[in-house]
Design goal:
The complex is a heterodimer of chains A (334) and B (185). Chain A is an all-alpha fold. Chain A contains 11 helices and no strands. Helices cover 76% and strands 0% of the residues of chain A. The chains are: A mainly alpha (334), B mainly alpha (185).
Chain lengths: 334, 185
């Protein structure tokens, strides 16, 4: 048998195939085994979503995963940074987060709101630093820096609120001019002049009123603020009564809610700033400005007190050193 | 990439997506070849049918849970699975590859209804003769001859199934033919 004959034999055998009946039966059997099992484990919506994801290239999935981790890590980092103070590793993240928030805010009023929030954060940090007994070395520096930043924030908020106030004034004056009939341009000019004078008068009155709202500050002592100086005497008391009456009037005029000026004697700058924020929310800008001023003065007071305390600590320490030195020298002599 | 390769790839992806129609298509395309390959290895119709069913079931399971990175075609993959199941079958039975010609139970049923009686008889005789001769060959030679001349696979496909180089496969075929000729003659 040569190669050709051999291949011919092979060719014949290659026509060999299984029974058609068996093939059909076997097909049905296999289909029932495979797909009936799958019907029982029918993929849920979740699985079908996963199936969809399986079609996405692996590299894209990896990139999305890394992005998700980075963003969530950043978010979690910011959350963790909420209670940090200067000196902590995440404090920079906190400040960066605040700056980003501000940059992404476009409304003057919202920016002012944020400024108050950040000022509140500074006030909170001041309290935290002062309450921390562990760190003593650069405590004063930290407090000084925080106070500086606090004033920066509230000044920023103040300027924005003043801008808003200014922008709203022409609208007010316009309303008044609409009320009174205008006969001629000359009358119009005279009327505008009158209105301006009135506005200027209002401003000056407001300026006059401002210190009297803060009459609470006049009778202050080292421990805090007092509303009324009972030891001032008759004239003093008369002035105090008048001032407190004016203060009450301003309280009634300025605030529409009870929450705004419920406790004028609060020494917590955070609380005051929160009240300022509430006033801002109810579009009471003058009240907000007043509260910001008050918060600034409270912070100054806290700074002074902390300075006094640290000086006292140093004095005590010095005394202790002197005493121990004296004791040692006595022992040496003996 | 050739059109055939692309079609094969598409079929694989559809199988991966648990497409019933894709499974039916793969079954219809490869059942004859796989059955023939197994039959000439194990020599028993019942065993060949059982093992053929196992090949498709195990292939389906494997495709769902793994990626066929080392196989270029589904066909090669099916043959590989068939070979592995046959090896397990041998281990289980503890017998060597056996194309029995004496056992009446192992008589080949020529199932192709279209073939007339005369041709059926001729075919039976041819298979019988060849079986006799190939029985005396080494397993390796028998396998490569079956894949090349009975299953009509290309050198490339055989190389993929046997996990050998194309050169090795050519040498094997050459030696197998030589040995078979010596036996027949």
């Amino acid at each position: 048998m040569n190669d050709k004959q051999l291949f011919k034999e092979f060719k014949k055998i290659s026509s060999f195939k299984p029974s058609q009946t068996w093939k059909a039966k076997n097909r049905e059997l296999l289909l029932s085994q495979i797909f009936s099992a799958q019907e029982a484990l029918k993929p849920s919506y979740f699985n079908s979503v996963l199936k969809g994801f399986s079609l996405i290239p692996q590299s894209a999935m990896v990139a999305v995963f890394i992005l998700a981790i980075t963003l969530s890590g950043g978010f979690l980092g910011l959350r963790a940074a909420q209670n940090t103070v200067p000196g902590d590793s995440l404090y920079i993240a906190k400040i960066a987060g605040e700056k980003t928030k501000l940059a992404l805010t476009f409304n003057n009023k919202n920016k002012a709101r944020l400024g108050l929030e950040f000022a509140g954060n500074r006030a909170k940090e001041i309290n935290q630093v002062l309450a921390d007994t562990d760190v003593v070395e650069d405590k004063d520096e930290k407090v000084e820096k925080l106070v500086f930043n606090f004033h920066k924030e509230i000044n920023g908020a103040k300027s924005r609120l003043k801008k808003i106030n200014k922008n709203s004034e022409p609208a007010n004056s316009k309303k008044e001019s609409e009320k009174t009939p205008v006969a001629s341009p000359e009358n119009n000019l005279a009327q505008n002049q009158t209105e301006e004078n009135e506005l200027a008068k209002d401003d000056s009155e407001a300026d006059d009123k401002e210190p009297q709202v803060f009459s609470a500050n006049l009778g202050k002592d080292e421990n805090g603020l007092e509303i009324y100086d009972a030891n001032a005497g008759e004239s003093g008391s008369a002035v105090a009564v008048e001032e407190s009456a004016l203060a009450d009037e301003d309280v009634q005029n300025a605030s529409t809610t009870d929450e705004g000026f419920a406790d004028v004697s609060t020494t917590n700058p955070e609380e005051i700033l929160k009240q300022a924020g509430d006033s801002l929310d109810s579009d009471d800008i003058s009240a907000a400005l007043n509260l910001i001023e008050e918060a600034g003065q409270v912070i100054n007071q806290i700074e002074e007190n902390s300075g006094a305390t640290s000086t006292e600590d140093l004095k005590i320490e010095a005394l202790e050193i002197e005493e121990s030195a004296a004791t040692t020298s006595e022992e040496g002599v003996n | 990439m050739s059109a055939k390769r692309i079609k094969d790839k598409i079929l694989y992806l559809r199988l991966k997506q648990k497409d019933k129609e894709a499974f039916i298509k793969a079954y219809d395309n490869y059942i004859n070849d796989i059955y023939r390959f197994i039959y000439f290895k194990v020599g028993s119709k019942e065993d060949a049918e059982d093992i053929t069913s196992q090949v498709f079931l195990k292939s389906w399971d494997y495709i769902q849970n793994n990626d066929l990175l080392e196989y270029k075609t589904i066909k090669a993959f099916f043959y590989r699975v068939a070979r592995n199941i046959i090896i397990d079958h041998y281990r289980g039975k503890n017998t060597q590859a056996n194309i029995s010609i004496d056992n009446k139970e192992n008589q080949i049923d020529i199932i192709d209804e279209k073939v007339d009686l005369g041709k059926e008889v001729d075919l039976k005789n041819d298979i019988k003769n060849l079986q006799q001769a190939m029985r005396e060959l080494k397993d390796e030679y028998r396998e490569v001859l079956m894949l090349r001349y009975i299953n009509e696979l290309s050198i490339k496909e055989i190389a993929e199934i046997l996990d050998k180089s194309k050169g090795n496969v050519r040498v094997l075929i050459f030696r197998a033919i030589k040995a078979l000729k010596n036996i027949v003659n």
